[in-house]
Each structure stands twice: as C-alpha cells, then as structure tokens.
Design brief:
Number of strands of chain A: 23
Largest sheet of chain A: 10 strands, mixed
Oligomer: heterodimer
Number of strands of chain B: 27
Strand content of chain A: over 45%
Distance between the termini of chain B: 6 Å
Order of helices and strands of chain A: EEEEEHEEEEEEEEEEEEEEEEEEHHH
Number of helices of chain B: 12
Largest sheet of chain B: 13 strands, mixed
Largest interface: A-B, 45 and 39 residues
Shape of chain A: globular
Number of helices of chain A: 4
Radius of gyration of chain B: 22 Å
Helix content of chain B: 10-25%
Distance between the termini of chain A: 42 Å
C-alpha cells in the first residue's frame, strides 16, 4: 500500500522555524484497516457504524489536522458512533473501548518511514451527545511489551446544547509503538467537553486535540498527565477555538520526563472576534528528572476580542529549593522526593477520572 | 456603568512627521543588484574584504526565503527601494557646520538639546550617512571610542571591526540580515575599555527623510571587561505614501563582568517596514539590559537576542509595544542560555487599538551545559477594542534538568473594577482609564532616563475622549 508523508499537530500561528516547534512531520505512513476493539456499551447508549464520510461529527477539525482525516479516509475504515440520546444522562457507567495492539512485524521511524512489509492501523470514532445528555467514554490503549506498532485513533465529538461529555483516554503502550491520538470536537450552547488524557508510555506519541466552543457558554476542560522515559517522544497540540460568547476553557498539563525523553507541548487559547465574556486558562508543569531530557513548551494566546481574559503559565525544571529543604528536613532523600513528586503529578490527574473502574484499574497496575 | 467604548487617540506623531525637500542628494537606483551593491561599496571606499562580504551577502539574500511566520510584508517590493541615499554633506563634530535643514530636523527632534543636557556623545544619521558625531572630551579621555563605523573601518580599529562585524548576526541568519550585509551604511562604533564606567549615556539617532528609501545602519558596541555603558537609540521618519524600509543591525559584545544597557525608542512612520536585527553576546558575569519602546512602523519584526555565553551572564528585557491603526507590530525577544548559572528576566507589555495588531513572540533556549540557569518571562497584553488583535507566542526549549524556568502571560481589557475604584476616589472615568493605560506601560518608562521617560509619555499621549459612563 502506498505510504503518505504527513504534517500534523500544526500550531495555529507559526513561529521561528529554527525551534522546530511549528508542526510535526511523519514520513512513509500508511494504514489499511482498524484493529478490533473490545467494547462495553451501556444500554442507554446507541451504537452504530457508518462510513467515514457519513459520520455525524465528521466535519469537526482536529488537533492533528487534515492529514489524519486523509489517513482514515484512505484506509476506508468504518466510524464507530456512540450516541447519548436527547435528555439521557448516562452517569452510572461508561462506554469502554479497549484497543490492544499486537506486533505488526515491521519497524517504523518517523523520519525514515516503515522498514519492511506491512501497514499501520487506524480506528475512528464519533461521540455524539444529543441535547441535555451526558456520557462518559473511556478509551484504553495497550500493547504487548515489545510489540512493534504503527497506529492511530481519531475521535470526533459533537456535543449538542447542554450536553456533557467526559472523555478519558489512557495510554499504556510499549516502547516500540508509534501512536497518533487525535481528537476534534464541537460544543453547542452550554455544552461541556471534559478530556482527561493519561500518557504513561509509548515510543513516539503524537497527541492532538482541537475543540470549537461555538455555542454560547460552552466549556472545555482538559487535564493531561504524562510520563515519558527512555527514548520516548511525546508531541502534543491542544487548541481551544472559542467563537461563542461566555465560553471558557481550562487546559492543564502536568508531566515527568526521564532518561532521554523528549516532549513538546503546544497549547493554544484562540479567542475569535465575537467571543465576548470568554475566558481561557492554560498551565503546564513539567518535572525534569534526568540530565538528558528535552522539554519544549509553546503556549499561545491568540486574541481578536477585547472582552476576554486569558492566562497561561508554565513552570519547567527541577523542584523548588524551599520544597526540597522542607521534605529533606522530614527525612527524605532527594531521589525519594523527586520520585514522590513525579508520582503526585500523575496521581493528581488520575484522581480526576470520573470513572471508578478506570481509577481502580490504574491503581491495580501501580499507576496511582 | 455604560458599555459605550472609550476612545483612545493614536499616538501623536506630529513632532516627527515633517520633511524637507531632498537637495543635491546622491542616491543609487531603485532595486537590489550586484551593480548597485558594488556602487555602494565604491562610494564608501570599502576595503576589499568588505566589498566581497557585501556581494556574498547579496547571494545569500537571493537564496533565502521570506519568513513563513510573522506579519505579511507583501507591500515591500525591493525593486522600489533605494538602498543608499547620501545627503550633500560630510560628517561634522559641530552642529553649526551641519546644513541648516538637517540641523533643524534634529533640533525639532530635540537631539542637540539632549546632548547638552544629558548625553556623553551623539551620533546623528540622516538617510544613509552620519551627519554629526561627537563625544565629550572627558569621555574620550577615558579611552572611550565613539565614532561612525566607516571611520573605524579605515582607522586604527579596522582589525577590531573586521573581527566583530556581522560575526554575531551573520548574513546567513535570515533574509534581512543578508540584505543588511549587502547594503549596510552608516551606524556607530563604540568601544569602552576595561573598567571604564561611562556615567551618562551615549545616543545615536537615525532619521530617514527620503521617500521610498531604506536605512541600513550598523551599530557595533564592545564593552570590555568590567566596564559600563548606557547606549540610547532613537529613530523616526516622516510618513510617505510609499513603503520605506529599515533593516539595521545591532551587535553588542559585553565582556566579563561588564554591563551594557541598550535603550530604544522606535517611532518610525506608519509606512515603514522595520525588519531590524539586534543581538548581544554576554561573557562571564556580564549583563545586558534591553529597554525597548516600539510605537511606530507599519510592520515590525523585532526580537533582540541575548546569547548568555559566559558563566553567570545575565540579561534583562523590558519592553512596551503600542500598535494602532494600520500597524502590525511583531515584537519580543530571544534568549539563549549557553553557560552555567546564567539568568534572564523578560517583562513586556503590549497595547493594541483601532485595528492595530500586536504580537509578543519570544524564545528561551536553555542549552544542556547551562546548568543552574534561571529564566522568568512575563508578558501582558491590553486590548482596547475588538477591532484590534493581540497574540502571544512564547516558546521554551529546555535541555537541562537543572533549570528553573517560569513563564506567565495575561491578556485582557481595562478592568471595570479598577476604573470604578479610581472613580470612587474622585477621578473622572476618562482620567481613570488613561491612568490605567499609562501605568500599564510603566515598566519601560521607569527604566529610561527622566528626559526620555517624559518623551515616551508624550509619545503615548493617550488622550481620552467621548462619553464613557
């Protein structure tokens, strides 16, 4: 199957090219099918499948961008659609989608492409929330320890008036996995999308998310917890595109980098003209554990509206000396303190997961 | 409280927007060709290496792409730009010897008066050439060299110039650095010997009078070990209906334990494309302080860069940018921490109104060897109406664990609560809003010498009009 070169995770506004932060490039990508998922779907949720072009949330732009749409369309994979019906608040249980990746038999390098015969996999989902509905969706990505994988998951969301979506995506992938996770959504009036993204492993992870807050008083909450180690690379692009009045977004990322890990976080609050009364907050807190890690952070505020309040902040590096002094005076050594604080960053995100079963599973696996 | 919008006046440019007819000036043809570059080189009696340097720079210029980020510069056509305009005078050390119209220009800008009151030396450039250069005897007696760059290029400092010229900003850096390398003209050279502290500032002022012309002055400052200098740069131009171009270059070498404060009040006219490059290299224990006010230009790309090359080197960057109608000002700074225990502080404000676009763009790079370095970036933006735009694009690239990096940014409008508080103290709403906006820009004005702070406040002149309540 013919491969394609992809440009993904592009910033809405570019900056100096020598920083290599504007966008990510992947050479020689292909995908010809989805992998079968194990799912658990509450009775109240409607489950159906449609062709990519016919899916109801198909028009939503995503964080990764149009090239991931093209990858899915070329692969001809079906879109699995989960719909919360009008007025139904499904709070007792969650839609659970388990994707367990097996070895694909080839190596993939973002610069060199695929070496050997084989094709990647892509799964596509639509989450549709009719008016006044509520739904929790948990997506759990796993792979066998040393499985060689090139895979993508695209999730598009349509949240109608007053709807609430809790989307939890957990990533526990092996050290030979290149993984593209992409979200695109739209919020109508007073709708809310909450995304919790926990990234615990993987070799090359590209993570995109773009939500359009087009309805008045619609809101977006994003909590990201990540741990990148070994030679792992994590490339993120989060974008809150705000056009409705009195919209609000809150993007929070907390992470830990170890060994020779590389991480790039792009986060954009995009106030469009007319979104008066809107707010946007964005914060990243990165703990660097080892000498050879590389951290890149670029938090944007784009503003074409006077009546807004936007804030972003970032703290990067080691632990504060006063905190270290306090903890050391309690008998802990520096290594123990760093490990404890690294765990605390992820725990804080995991605790926000609104699904007890998922929290318990992460706890059992020692992640909390 | 009424929601009717406050009207805030554009910056008053009447004191800068005057012009004199060109008399007997020498100028090259419009455009950019090897023949024109050779013609400039011959006019300036360049040494051979400089002529070759110019031609190589032109080659680089022709190969480099226009940036794919930043404001559009479609309105700038190099085929229409005159890259060298020499006024019909030599450089003088007495204002009385300067031709009357040029002298009047600088008097209206307050330069001779400022020299008498508060400066240790002045260089005044008119179009492509310096027309006045002088330094006080007591400063010269300290061994301080302050002269035009071309005299230095031919005199006893020729080797020093050759060793430093466009070494910090090579022509390969970007397209307009290459342009500068090809057609540069004018500018100043300052050398402050070890341990010498220049107590009062030196100033260079750049005036572009010719329509459709470019100004490409080169400022080269070397502050040797343990020395101190405050250098002030000012610039302005009358407004024309055709594009003018400023692509100057500033290279600052700050020695061990030396300090250089570089202050700029930029007030180019609104037909100006200001594509300027400024860079400082700071050695062990040294410090560079940038103070920058950007008020003019149609389009600006301006990001002074500090390369903290020696252990314990420091940089401070303080700026305010005011973008009004027809302006797209893309400003900010770059810092590279390239040695252990270096530190940087960035504190910026930007204001946009009447359709103006203001972008804060920065990069903080902490290299792997820059252990125990610290950086703090704070940028605040104020939107005065919804016709305008304000963007914040800060980048951080951190490659050592042993770093403390903090960044914060805020964007918003004038707080109703703050206005209400001031009004409850008997201040009118107009005055309250003016006070808040003036205070917002205070980070820069309080860093300038008094006379310049007053000039900046006059420059802003945020007059409040109309019913607000």
């Amino acid at each position: 199957m013919e491969t394609m070169d992809m440009t993904i995770n592009a910033l809405p506004a570019f900056t100096y090219n020598w920083l290599h932060m504007n966008e990510a490039h992947l050479s020689g990508v292909n995908a010809d099918a989805e992998i079968p998922a194990r799912t658990e779907v509450p009775q109240e949720i409607l489950e159906e499948t449609k062709a990519y072009g016919d899916a109801p949330a198909n028009t939503a732009k995503t964080g990764a961008g149009a090239d991931l749409d093209r990858l899915a369309e070329r692969a001809g994979v079906p879109v699995h659609i989960y719909t919360a019906k009008k007025g139904r608040k499904v709070t007792g249980d969650a839609v659970r989608i388990y994707l367990d990746y097996a070895d694909q038999g080839f190596e993939y390098d973002p610069k060199a492409g695929i070496s050997g015969e084989g094709t990647g996999k892509i799964n596509a989902y639509n989450l549709v929330l009719e008016e006044d509905s509520e739904m929790t969706v948990v997506m759990d990505y796993r792979s066998a320890g040393d499985a060689k994988v090139l895979a993508a998951v695209q999730t598009k969301i349509a949240a109608k008036k007053n709807a609430v979506l809790h989307l939890v995506q957990i990533q526990r992938l092996g050290s030979n996995v290149t993984f593209l996770n992409d979200i695109g959504g739209n919020c109508d009036e007073s709708a809310r999308i909450e995304v919790i993204r926990v990234i615990l492993s993987g070799k090359n992870t590209y993570d995109g998310c773009r939500v359009a807050l087009s309805g008045d008083r619609s809101t977006l909450g994003v909590d990201i917890g990540y741990a990148v180690s070994g030679d792992g690379r994590l490339d993120m692009n989060y974008d809150s595109y705000q056009t409705g009045k009195k919209t609000a977004c809150n993007i929070s990322a907390a992470g830990v980098l170890r060994d020779r890990a590389f991480k790039l976080f792009r986060g954009t609050i995009d106030f469009q003209a007319g979104c008066s009364g809107s707010t946007g907050d964005e914060m990243e807190d990165v703990l660097l554990m080892d000498e050879d890690v590389v951290n890149q952070t670029i938090p944007l505020i784009l503003c074409a509206e006077e009546d807004v309040v936007g804030n972003h902040g970032a703290t990067i590096g080691r632990l504060d000396e006063s905190l270290m002094f306090y903890m050391e005076s309690r008998g802990m050594n520096r290594s123990e303190i760093y490990e404890m604080m690294a765990k605390a960053r992820l725990d804080a995100v995991i605790r926000k997961i609104p699904d007890e079963k998922t929290r318990a599973a992460l706890s059992e696996s020692g992640e909390e | 409280m009424s929601k009717e919008k406050t009207y805030i006046e554009d910056i008053d440019r009447s004191m800068y927007d005057f012009r004199y007819e060109e008399k007997d000036v020498y100028k090259v043809d419009e455009g950019l060709t090897p023949a024109i570059v050779r013609q400039i080189s011959e006019e300036k009696n360049d040494p051979e290496w400089m002529r070759d340097f110019r031609l190589k720079s032109l080659d680089i210029y022709n190969k480099k792409q226009i940036p794919n980020w930043g404001p559009p510069i479609d309105g700038l056509n190099m085929n229409n730009i005159v890259t060298y305009v020499r006024p019909n005078t030599k450089m003088h050390a007495e204002w009385d010897e300067v031709p009357q119209d040029i002298k009047e220009t600088f008097e209206r800008l307050g330069i001779p008066q400022a020299e008498r009151k508060s400066l240790a030396g002045v260089g005044a450039q008119y179009d492509s050439e310096l027309v006045y250069h002088n330094v006080k005897d007591e400063v010269a007696a300290q061994g301080v060299i302050y002269t035009d760059l071309e005299s230095a290029l031919h005199g006893e400092y020729a080797d020093m110039i050759r060793d430093h010229f466009m070494k910090l900003v090579p022509p390969t850096d970007h397209k307009f650095a290459a342009l500068h390398g090809a057609v540069w003209s004018g500018g100043s050279f300052v050398y402050v010997p070890p341990g010498v502290s220049v107590e009062i500032p030196l100033q260079s002022y750049f005036r572009l009078n010719a329509p459709g012309a470019g100004q490409f002055e080169h400022t080269l400052i070397i502050v040797d070990k343990g020395a101190y200098l405050h250098f002030i740069e000012g610039c302005s131009a009358p407004k024309y209906n055709i594009a003018n171009l400023h692509a100057g270059c500033v290279e600052l070498f700050v020695g061990e334990d030396a300090t250089l404060r570089y202050s700029t009040i930029e007030n180019w006219s609104k037909n100006m494309y200001n594509l300027n490059t400024k860079r400082a290299k700071v050695e062990k224990g040294g410090k560079v302080e940038w103070v920058s006010g950007s008020f003019g230009s149609h389009v600006s790309y301006l990001y002074p860069m500090s390369v903290l090359a020696g252990e314990g080197a420091r940089s401070e960057f303080t700026s305010v940018t005011f973008a009004g109608k027809g302006q797209n000002l893309d400003t900010g700074c770059k810092v590279v921490h390239a040695a252990p225990r270096t530190s940087s502080v960035v504190n910026t404000r930007s204001i946009s109104k009447s359709g103006g676009i203001s972008t804060f763009r920065s990069s903080v790079v902490v290299q792997k060897n820059a252990e125990d370095s610290k950086s703090s970036v704070s940028c605040q933006s104020l939107m005065l109406d919804s016709d305008s735009r304000s963007d914040t694009i800060p980048a951080m690239d951190i490659r050592t664990q042993k770093a403390d990096i903090g960044h914060e940014a805020k964007i918003g409008r004038i707080s109703d609560e703050a206005v209400f508080y001031l009004m409850s103290r008997g201040i009118s709403e107009d005055e309250a809003r003016a006070l808040i906006v003036s205070g917002f820009a205070d980070n820069v004005s309080k860093e300038l010498p008094l006379e310049y702070a007053v000039e900046m406040n006059n420059l802003i002149r945020l007059e409040m009009k109309g019913a607000i309540g």
